[in-house]
Design goal:
The chain has five helices and no strands. The protein is mainly alpha-helical. The structure holds zinc ion.
Length: 79
């Protein structure tokens, strides 16, 4: 049953870095930070976007974290 692996590898593209859900979860904070700072999160953390596009669970996490981070930044007290 190696077909599944091959199919997955093809979906991720040629020598695209593979990000597991666990890694995705660990990097999500930084990914969102870079995104909100206007940086190129996809270039800094390769493989993340591909994973988010292919993984509804992580995509949902990403969206709620982004919404949360945006709200938190908005509500941050002026120092
Ligand atoms: Zn995932």
């Amino acid at each position: 049953m190696s077909d599944h692996r091959e199919l997955l590898a093809r979906m991720l593209g040629p020598d695209g870095p593979e990000v597991s859900c666990e890694q995705c979860f660990e990097l999500l904070d930084r990914y969102v930070d870079i995104e909100l700072a206007g940086g190129d999160a996809d270039a800094r953390l390769p493989g993340m976007r591909a994973h988010l596009e292919g993984c509804p669970a992580c995509r949902e996490d990403h969206e709620s974290l982004r919404a949360f981070a945006a709200t938190a930044a908005d509500e941050a007290p002026h120092v």
